[in-house]
Amino acid sequence: MPINILRVLRIINKADWIHFRAPTNIGLFLLPLLNFFITKKVWVKYAGNWKQSSVPWSYKTQRWWLKNIFKKSFVTINGKWENQDKHLLSFYNPCLTDDELNDANRIGVKKDFSENLNLCFVGRGGRNKGVVELLMAVKALDSSNKISELNIVGIDKDEILDTNFEQNNIKIHIFGWVNRKKLNRIYEKSHFIVLPTKSEGFPKVIAEASAYGCIPIITNFKPINQIIHDNHNGILLDNPSAKNIQECIQKINSNKYELKNISSLAIEVSKQFTYRKYIKRIESEIINESI
């Protein structure tokens, strides 16, 4: 801690602006430290779910500090909340350049939902992210379903012994971390991105996959349901259990959804997550407002 504080102090003295990302372990001692630099301009990004109750005490401490002590600084958060203080700014997390968006959208608008369908999961492992429930749901499907492939990206291959196998005529591929080019190819051939997570801010992979016309199937909670609306620009799971995921896929198999329309509206969602729009908001609502 002392070494990190000294490093930060040396850099802060050279800077006009201080930007910090929370929550993180060093936030417990750096956020109080930043209060001593009253002549500096401060912007903090809180990357987690702003209202989630089941978080570590360290997250709750940093959230309380940002809400009550940082009232003269800017704090960007995911989602919009009741009784939100003026210094708390709701921001989308960017993940696409204009060129990436345009290339992905050209592919997405041509996506065909009339034949076999592919699913993908993109994220890290762990019980909280729901990949186990997704695999259980696929295992419970019968062999007559329309799903052809499930590609799981971001899971350490050591966590699952079989990295390529078949279940009920569904080919399942388990990848570790992949580069952006390979990830885009997976988005390109996928029709759905399934994220049965139990806690989240707003995953960037939703916007990335939506740009390619992938329909988000994701858990129904804030702030996700402020952007993704059920049977409109995505499909929401009230409970991310294996049974609910299975029932959702069965509805897809029985043509319960207007998939092409939902895909088109998902593409529109992706247009809100460009770096250009993000930078423009930073300039107009944070930098210029503080001058």
Defining traits:
4-stranded parallel sheet, 7-stranded mixed sheet, 2 domains, 291 residues, 10 helices, 18% strand, Rossmann fold, alpha/beta
Write a structural description.
- The protein has 291 residues and is of the alpha/beta class.
- It folds into two domains: 2-91, 3-Layer(aba) Sandwich (Rossmann fold), CATH 3.40.50; 98-270, Rossmann fold (3-Layer(aba) Sandwich), CATH 3.40.50.
- It contains ten helices and eleven strands.
- The protein has helices spanning 2-12, 27-34, 57-68, 98-108, 131-140, 180-189, 204-211, 242-253, 259-270, 275-290; strands spanning 17-22, 41-46, 74-77, 88-90, 117-122, 147-153, 164-167, 170-174, 192-195, 215-219, 235-237.
- α5 packs across α8 (242-253).
- It starts with a helix and ends with a helix.
In short, what is this structure?
The protein is α/β, with parallel strands linked by helices and 291 residues long. The chain has helices at residues 2-12, 27-34, 57-68, 98-108, 131-140, 180-189, 204-211, 242-253, 259-270, 275-290; strands at 17-22, 41-46, 74-77, 88-90, 117-122, 147-153, 164-167, 170-174, 192-195, 215-219, 235-237.
The CATH superfamily of the largest domain appears as: Glycogen Phosphorylase B
CATH top level assignment of the largest domain: Alpha Beta
Number of extended strands: 11
Specify the structural class. alpha/beta
Radius of gyration from CA coordinates: 21 Å
- Percent of residues in helices: 25-40%
How many separate structural domains? 2
Distance between the termini: 33 Å
Overall pLDDT metric: 91
Which ranges are low-confidence, i.e. pLDDT below 50, for 5 or more consecutive residues? none
Provide the CATH topology of the largest domain: Rossmann fold
Strand percent estimate: 15-25%
Strand order of the largest sheet: 7-8-6-5-9-10-11
Note the run of SSEs as H and E: HEHEHEEHEHEEEHEHEEHHH
Largest sheet geometry: 7 strands, mixed
- Envelope shape: elongated
Structure annotation, total helices: 10
Going by CATH, the architecture of the largest domain would be: 3-Layer(aba) Sandwich
